[in-house]
Amino acid sequence: MTVTPIELFDAGIHLRQGGRIHAGKAPMDPGRDGWQLTAFHAKTGADVHADHWQVNTEAEEVVSCIIGKIRLYLCPERPGGQEEEIRLTAGTAAIVPRGRWRRIQLDIPSTIMTITLTGGARLEERAGRSAKDR
């Protein structure tokens, strides 16, 4: 088997059950089993869906700042609560609990890596989620 470099910003890495690893065009097919590692450059809020909340109902998620500075916000666990803010700088990560809504805001252009179980992820406009929690 020939081993070749993988361009992380053009491909997702799918860690399959049984120990197999597949690299392919991101995003991967959500119907596959296993975990997905995705790395991307983010220059604007649009690159991180800053105006949306995201949740993974099937598993926890790792959000890591490889280069730059970002803020990870977690939706309040109870209606009327405050958003939780986690500041991530280069080389740091946070584990988002399963079923917890989160969003990312850039402080500066950044390189971000996420690791999550394929499937179970949903996006919802920020205004819609905030209104539901009040």
From TrEMBL:
InterPro entries given in the database record: RmlC-like_jellyroll, RmlC_Cupin_sf
Protein name: Cupin
Species the sequence originates in: [Actinomadura] parvosata subsp. kistnae
Taxonomy of the source species: Bacteria, Bacillati, Actinomycetota, Actinomycetes, Streptosporangiales
